[in-house]
Amino acid sequence: MVSLETPVCEFDKPAVDFTLPGVDGKTWSLQDCAGPNGLLVMFICNHCPYVKAIHERLVRDTLALKELGINSVAIMSNDPAEYEEDSFENMVRVADEFGYPFPYLLDESQEVAKAYGAVCTPDFFGYNADLGLQYRGRLDESRKEAAPEGVRRDLFEAMKQVAETGRGPAVQIPSMGCSIKWRD
Question: Structure pTM?
Fold first, then answer.
């Protein structure tokens, strides 16, 4: 398992459109997912310890962002042939187990992850109402285990600022996680 950090935010880079199947049986596009004040696009998976450590916080923060007009979507781009835990059936199970309040989509071709430049799980892309990139950082101090209670909620605070001003913070701490499992 390779641990990687995300690159620096490319402010105002447009969100890439997609059409992907969700664990809810629907097909979702970028426009279907976007909220009135923005969109958080998350690349996650089921097997990664960095993602497992933040499930509850991810649900908490995406629910709070929805109240601010920022919707969220999670995309799983790993090759499930390498990790059975990342199969579509297990995506359905995990989304149900944690009560994901956002669409959880399968990027089987891995083309969406490549178009976004996703490198790890979790990898967060926060967009404003115009779907221009404003945040490419971490959720909080969590790594392979959840950070202590009360730590700064980096992603939530950044996206709250985006909802209020349309702009993300100038200083962002990169997300860290397992490398995306690319097909050969």
Answer: 0.96
Q: Which of 73, 76, 86, 1 is nearest to 35 (CA)?
A: 73
- 118, HSE (Cβ side, Cα atoms, 13 Å): 33
Cα→Cα distances 44→17, 41, 124, 177, 180, Å? 18, 10, 9, 9, 9
CB 163 within 8 A of CB 35: no
Q: Where are the alpha helices (DSSP H) in 46-177?
A: 49-52, 55-67, 88-98, 111-116, 154-165
Three-state DSSP at 35 gives strand
Interatomic CA distance for residues 110 and 70, integer angstroms: 25
Assess whether pLDDT exceeds 60 at residue 1: no
Q: Do β-strands 123-127 and 70-76 pair in parallel, antiparallel, or remain unpaired?
A: unpaired
Cα separation, 88 vs 85, whole angstroms: 9
Question: Closest Cα to residue 58, out of 37, 77, 43, 78?
Answer: 43
Looking at the chain, the whole-number percentage of residues with pLDDT higher than 90 is: 91
Task: Please state, for a pLDDT cut of 70, what percent of the chain lies above it.
Answer: 98
Burial 91-106 (b: 16+ CB within 10 A, else e): bbebbeeeebebbbbb
Strands 38-43 and 176-179: unpaired
- Fold of the domain spanning 3-179: Glutaredoxin (3.40.30)
